[in-house]
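Minutes, project check-in
Item: structure for the 242-residue chain
Input as provided by the requester:
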Amino acid sequence: MAGVKLVSMMVAALSIGSAHLASAADLPLKAPPLSVFSWTGFYVGGSFGGDSGTATATDILATNGLAWVRNGAQWSAKIRSFTASAEAGYNWQVGNIVFGVEGDVGYLGQTGSSQYPLLTTTTLNTHGNLFSTARGRFGFAFDRVLVYGTGGWFGADFDSTVNQSIGVVIHTSSTGFQSGWTAGGGLEWAFARNWSLKGEFLHYDVGTKKVGGTFTGGGAAIQFFNIKDTGDIARAGINYHF
């Protein structure tokens, strides 16, 4: 009799267990949590776009106290060109806030000139060459979309000069490499696990540089001009995230 009771108890236990398993099988399965993209990490990439710049020359006094034509008179050369660069940076993400650092090295294909309205044989010439930036970035992430502002240091070789080659001759020194600031913003989209596309706008201002050159008449040892270079870069880029 004890054996019969034991068997009966085992059958009952198995029946209860089977009923619980059947009930559990009928319950809907929970979906696994969705993975959220993280912007934290190192990245490298490249950008290309256009540059719209302005070089402005100001007629200032020579070493003999005279202006070339009129002290304080200004004229400008407008430049539009192609630009391309390579970049690298690092992001940190806390919640939906993303901050980081980025630097790039590139080329400004600028070439332009403009005549001095008060003396049309005098020209302002500018040639953009290599440029570089070192910037901070701060923005907000909406999963795979990042909206950000950026700003910091901007440096470029603009090679701007003033030249007069008819009659009284003058060729000033070049502005050469100039340093200033840049600020802008952009939007970046992570279209794959390790890849993102971005669109970005930067305004730059490298300030004013004094250039001068000896000329063949008028009694001045050196004639001076101030040259100021500013511009805007609009570009698109692609980044690989490690």
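Outcome recorded: Residues 1-25 have pLDDT under 50 and may be disordered.
No further action items on this chain.
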